[in-house]
Specification:
The protein has about 130 residues and is mostly helical. It has a domain at about 1-75. The chain has helices at about 1-20, 25-60, 65-75. Helix 2 crosses helix 3 (about 65-75). The chain is flat and about 125 Å long.
């Protein structure tokens, strides 16, 4: 009798392990259910897109108005006798930042280049007579 109880407890433990942790466990089942929900949402989005494209194809096959509209919008085509006018909007100039309160930086002093003959001598200053 004790052996039967021990065997049943081991069997119960093995089944519980498989139910909670092993392959096909409840965690796996939950993950698969989430995946199914995501796949269904993607499938619905793609079905809607396919319906829109099918409607557009039927519209293009049935009449010239849709074909003409598409040629004008996407290819920039015009009918004979029409004038094409393109409006180019100027973008507003960017705002000029306000000058800082500090004094502007002065450029670094430049060094005078000397000629190969030596430094250049300036003529003596003349005295003005009145």
């Amino acid at each position: 009798m004790r052996l039967l109880i021990l065997v049943l407890i081991v069997l119960l433990a093995a089944l519980q392990y498989r139910l909670w942790v092993g392959p096909g466990s409840r965690a796996d089942l939950h993950g698969l259910n989430l995946e199914i929900v995501a796949q269904k949402a993607e499938l619905e989005r793609l079905r809607t897109r396919n319906q829109e494209l099918q409607a557009e194809v039927e519209d293009l096959r049935s009449g010239e108005a849709a074909l003409e509209e598409r040629a004008r919008d996407e290819l920039g085509m015009i009918k004979g006798g029409e004038a094409f006018i393109q409006v180019i909007e100027r973008s507003p100039l960017p705002a000029v930042p306000a000058p800082p309160d500090t004094e502007p930086a002065t450029p670094a002093p430049r060094h005078k280049k000397s000629s190969p003959a030596g430094p250049k001598k300036e003529p003596p200053a003349r005295e003005e007579r009145q």
